[in-house]
Specification:
The structure is a homodimer of 251-residue chains. With 251 residues, chain A is an alpha/beta fold. The first copy, chain A, has eight helices and eight strands. An eight-stranded mixed sheet of chain A has the order 3-2-1-4-5-6-7-8, covered by helices on one side. In chain A, α7 packs antiparallel against α8. Chains A and B meet through α5, α6, α7 and α8 of A and α5, α6, α7 and α8 of B.
């Protein structure tokens, strides 16, 4: 499985393409619906590109990294080749019976095209429609990463939800903090040591065990004062709901 | 200002006491309402202890690190000495006119007694009732930390609310993730690279600029699927509220 086609040109396709090439895989072609996007990534990888799925070359493996909504449509235009998608939330059943070798190759990360990351530390969650194909996918993932896990679709979906909380929603908490600080001309950087300390505790402790703050202490007077001080209706409501949830889970 | 009394024996008092002693300040006495707690910290610091505020020794500075609710009661029993509290949410006005030199010495951190931390990286927020006292407090803070900021009570309260979001609430997001993973027998450790990547982006970027995920992408079908899959009513509601807030702030 050395010859790989990337279907998609977004963050995941870009990072995977670069990483696979570094590990001596051959990226034979890049497809994107928008020819300019296909070209841009193909130039980075020094390979061919197309915006026509009927023009895909033959390859050992097709990696489909498009929006979840687009996966089904893309698959309907690809003829039987070993194939994976890279989505956390799409079931392996999306391939129906149309592909002899199909599976999931899900890198658990938050990709931004511009930001470099150490792919070797990224967990890859692998699922294959046969033990043989699953092993082949695992072998590829292991050349990229030290952290490869076999996981079925149900587990992967739950992992994706958990990742939304742990990554997207925690980042939204940072955004809200930034917004609150900006109101009083305080730089967000002042919070970074606190944030890093919070994270470093997780290496050895469960998050629940290291919870701190007014809700954890059930300090209702501070909670009330904070609620009074917050101007935005939505942020006030989030403060109350999350505080209530902390109180409830630490009863 | 070399001779310091600690009023309180909790996380903040413990860490401050140890750090001050390392910087050659003399901890003259530890007070706690519970004599056993006073004794425990006094033993660590090799100093005297009491549970009677009328028995405080004379000192250059009293540091009050008790629960916010208890500060006022404690102050009513202390005679005029240079004094600070260490709370993010309590106004400097709590000292009323009863103290000639009073202020706030707020370390912006999440302290656990058991977990070591690098105090030199902790931001200290200083406020004094006079420029002269503020300078003295700043000098003490600078012996402990490289990150000392003068901040009035209004700013400090807002900073505290921001810290609740950035630290306590993000940690609750990690707790929820852990709970969801446990349901499917997945270890929380799989999320750590993702969490660390999320945080490392904040060194050079605003959190809003690096938001990712289904809500950022306005991917309503994933949001709907996640909402359907989440069993707990409270967690489902938090998923919806925070997703809505992400969508709204990225319009």
């Amino acid at each position: 499985m050395k010859n790989i086609i990337l279907v998609g040109s977004g963050n995941v396709a870009t990072h995977l393409g670069i990483a696979l090439q570094k590990c001596n895989y051959l990226i034979a072609q890049v497809y994107s619906r928008e020819i300019e996007n296909a070209k841009k990534l193909a130039l980075k990888l020094n390979t061919d590109f197309t915006n026509d799925l009927t023009q895909l070359k033959s390859a050992d493996l097709i990696i489909v990294s498009v929006n979840d909504d687009a996966i089904l449509k893309v698959l309907s235009q690809i003829k039987d080749t070993a194939i994976v998608h890279t989505s956390g939330s799409v079931d392996i059943d999306v391939f129906k019976g149309d592909f002899s070798n199909c599976g999931v190759f899900y890198p658990l990360q938050t990709f931004n095209k511009e930001i470099d990351l150490t792919i070797s530390e990224i967990p890859f969650c692998i699922e294959g429609n046969s033990l043989r194909f699953e092993k082949q996918l695992t072998a590829i993932a292991k050349t990229l990463s030290n952290n490869v896990v076999i996981m079925d679709s149900e587990q992967r979906k739950q992992l994706h939800i958990a990742a939304v909380f742990a990554c997207n929603f925690s980042n939204q908490m940072f955004s809200i903090a930034d917004e609150l600080l900006a109101e009083k001309n305080i730089d967000f950087g002042i919070l970074l040591p606190l944030i890093k300390q919070t994270i470093s505790k997780l290496d050895k402790n469960k998050p629940k065990a290291v919870q701190t703050g007014p809700a954890k202490r059930k300090d209702t007077s501070v909670i009330q004062e904070h609620t009074n001080l917050i101007q935005s209706k939505e942020i006030k409501e989030l403060y109350q709901k999350i505080s209530s949830h902390i109180i409830k889970t630490h009863e």
